């Protein structure tokens, strides 16, 4: 239930996390409605029913808000990617292909909402996607399976080299969607 009382003075919010959650939800609503580029801090403050000053108390600016939102989605996505990796842990090329496809086609589970990192929001969101945080998630996911693959096949594929291309492939396929069949054909060509 929406209240008309402002909570920005700190007295009406239980804790820091609650305040951040309210602002992030308001930011998502604005980004979906207006797009990231057109949304201002004033817009977010208005939807959250606070002042701009309150928004700046919780975040350093719009870029900080975008980073926080993308990190939340990144955590949710990698939680699911790990389940996919387990299904194919004895076939590293297939595991890699399935994980890249899932990451490239991942959409937040909330029905009816547009994707914050594709379409009109792609240009503003892109700098926040392929980051060190993302690389660390891929590193954690791929290290053991790649080591096993290298040992079994007497290969020397370097994890850091692989991570560089994985992140770029995910972004590329998010921004230029294709069918899974087209994606698989491209991955097969890449493996030759």
TrEMBL record:
<dbReference type="Pfam" id="PF00440">
    <property type="entry name" value="TetR_N"/>
</dbReference>
<dbReference type="InterPro" id="IPR009057">
    <property type="entry name" value="Homeodomain-like_sf"/>
</dbReference>
<protein>
    <recommendedName>
        <fullName>HTH tetR-type domain-containing protein</fullName>
    </recommendedName>
</protein>
<keyword id="KW-0238">DNA-binding</keyword>
<dbReference type="InterPro" id="IPR050624">
    <property type="entry name" value="HTH-type_Tx_Regulator"/>
</dbReference>
<dbReference type="InterPro" id="IPR023772">
    <property type="entry name" value="DNA-bd_HTH_TetR-type_CS"/>
</dbReference>
<feature type="domain" description="HTH tetR-type">
    <location>
        <begin position="17"/>
        <end position="77"/>
    </location>
</feature>
<dbReference type="InterPro" id="IPR001647">
    <property type="entry name" value="HTH_TetR"/>
</dbReference>
<feature type="DNA-binding region" description="H-T-H motif">
    <location>
        <begin position="40"/>
        <end position="59"/>
    </location>
</feature>
